[in-house]
Design brief:
Elements (H helix, E strand, L loop, with lengths): L3 H19 L5 H17 L3 H18 L2 H17 L3 H43 L1 H42 L1
Helix pairs in contact: 1-2, 2-3, 3-4, 4-5
Length: 174
């Protein structure tokens, strides 16, 4: 929710952006963003018809550019605006479109992620196969080194313990 001075500032900057749009200094995607922001501005001012007009213009561009992520956002904005107008039929229609597109995009992302993970796992499996022999030799050497270290540690511990016991016996004998 914007305060009064923030709304005035937002309107000023949106008008500046709109002037640039008229001078064709923006590409089509930037026009989509500006139109969507105008819609948000008018939604905040509770001028829902104007908000819907800007959202629908931005949706047309999102469709033309095949920008699913923007289309999803605009569907949600349209749904909220129709709900604010108490137009339950249109609210439900755009909410359904939003949910369907959101699910579709999530499924696509999951598929892409699964493909990437499968590819990485296959690469690791191939790498593991190629270094298995090297890995086995390294494992054996590390094991031998570990055993030698443990034996050395045990022998040093045993020797210190024997020396302590000798010292204790010598002190008792004195």
């Amino acid at each position: 929710v914007y305060r009064k001075n923030e709304i005035d500032s937002a309107k000023y900057y949106l008008d500046c952006a709109n002037d640039r749009l008229k001078n064709n200094t923006y590409d089509l995607f930037q026009k989509l963003v500006v139109l969507k922001q105008y819609g948000k501005f008018y939604y905040q001012k509770k001028q829902y018809d104007k908000a819907l007009d800007f959202y629908l213009q931005s949706l047309t561009i999102a469709n033309k550019l095949d920008k699913k992520d923007q289309r999803k956002i605009i569907y949600r904005l349209l749904s909220h605006t129709y709900k604010a107008q108490k137009n339950e039929k249109k609210h439900a229609e755009y909410l359904e479109k939003y949910l369907a597109l959101n699910e579709s995009m999530t499924d696509e992302n999951n598929k892409a992620l699964n493909i990437s993970v499968d590819h990485i796992l296959k690469q690791q499996e191939n790498e593991n196969k190629s270094i298995t022999n090297t890995g086995d030799t390294a494992s054996i050497l590390i094991s031998i080194l570990g055993i030698v270290t443990l034996l050395t540690g045990f022998l040093l511990y045993s020797r210190k313990k024997e020396e302590k016991e000798r010292l204790i016996l010598q002190q008792k004998d004195e």
